[in-house]
Write a structure and sequence with these properties.
alpha+beta, 12-stranded mixed sheet, 19 strands, globular
Length: 333
């Protein structure tokens, strides 16, 4: 099941489901209202609640799509628009890829201490292992690590990404994110799995020059002002039954102005999404509507690639079977 929001001719929004046989989006509440069938009366406009309905709701939506196929013109002019598929209540941003962490550390060294980079590269070549300070700290290997991000500064797919005045190094990060659809607290990973309702492509935007200063001189590390100004969320939510079984074997791509900058995958994710959720729910209640991001996929940001965005660039981050998030990069404010 795939969900997204549409905008009607009257500027109203509607949650829609993808009708695969007809290859079109069906606005759920308008279609149910048009049909007047009591079977569909309980279908609503809340994406989290629809995902929480599981197999029963998916079957009902399939019936809705089939029933309305011959009455498409009566539904009104609902079209895709730059809208968030839902508004997350909280963002828990994890870090799951050791390879990304190490390559990003090399990128920071290359960008900010270029005189030291050759010596460190020589040490790595001789030892045949990553430079020890580049590796994540020990807790990375024993439990999922995350920080709380700003869920209120999300930019929808198709909208322009703001370029804050305080940075000269705006960067992207390709991530996979899960939507929590039921409250969980002090549960096992197996129990947590049932509370994951869907997935979406996520771009955790980062001001790299600000991040470098936060790492070197800040109190709270590399995830404060360098992260909180904006992130971008894909337009489509895909139900967990489609994604979760293969969440660690998905391919991703990064394209800028149509050019392929990087191909990546989720294969080196150290923790599963149920394990992430179970860890987050230790001693606290994780609520429906929260978003859990995987952290950057390896080779999934400009810092790793040593390729940098410019104002006016068209950025597209995609993950197979989940979707994409596409944005134009705005001019510096």
């Amino acid at each position: 099941m795939r969900l997204r929001r549409l905008r009607g001719a009257d500027r109203r929004h509607a949650l829609a489901v993808w009708d695969e046989p007809a290859e079109r989006w069906v606005p759920i509440v308008p279609a149910a209202t048009l049909l007047g069938d009591p079977r569909f009366a309980g279908l609503g406009d809340d994406a989290v609640a629809v995902l929480a309905g599981g197999a029963e709701t998916r079957a009902l939506l399939a019936d809705l799509c089939e029933a309305v196929r011959g009455r498409r013109d009566e539904l009104g002019g609902y079209e895709p628009a730059p809208l968030l598929p839902f508004q997350p209540t909280l963002l828990r941003a994890f870090a799951l890829s050791e390879r990304h962490w190490i390559q990003s550390a090399r990128g920071h060294l290359r960008r900010n201490l270029p005189w030291a980079a050759p010596a460190v590269a020589a040490v790595e070549a001789i030892s045949r292992r990553p430079f020890k300070p580049f590796r994540p700290k020990p807790l990375f290997y024993s439990e999922p690590q995350y920080y709380l991000g700003n869920a209120l500064s999300l930019v929808p797919d198709g909208a322009e990404v703001p370029w804050p005045a305080f940075t000269e190094a705006l960067d992207f990060e390709l991530e996979l994110a899960a939507v929590v659809v039921a409250p969980v607290r002090d549960v096992s990973a197996a129990e947590a799995e049932a509370a994951i309702g869907g997935f979406v492509v996520f771009n955790d935007l980062t001001a790299r020059d600000v991040q470098w200063e936060e790492v070197r001189a800040g109190i709270f590390g590399p995830v404060t002002k360098s992260k909180s100004f904006a992130s971008a969320l894909g337009a489509e939510l895909v139900s967990a039954d489609v994604v979760l079984p293969r969440a660690r074997s998905l391919r991703g791509e990064i394209r800028v102005n149509g050019e392929l900058w990087s191909a990546t995958d989720t294969g080196d994710q150290r923790w599963t999404f149920p394990e992430m959720l179970a860890h987050a729910a230790k001693g606290e209640t994780v609520q429906p509507g929260e978003l859990l991001s995987s952290g950057t996929l390896h080779d999934g940001c400009g810092l790793e690639l040593d390729r940098w965005l410019r104002p006016g660039d068209d950025l597209e981050l995609s993950i197979e079977g989940v979707g994409a998030v596409r944005n134009r990069i705005g001019a510096p404010e």
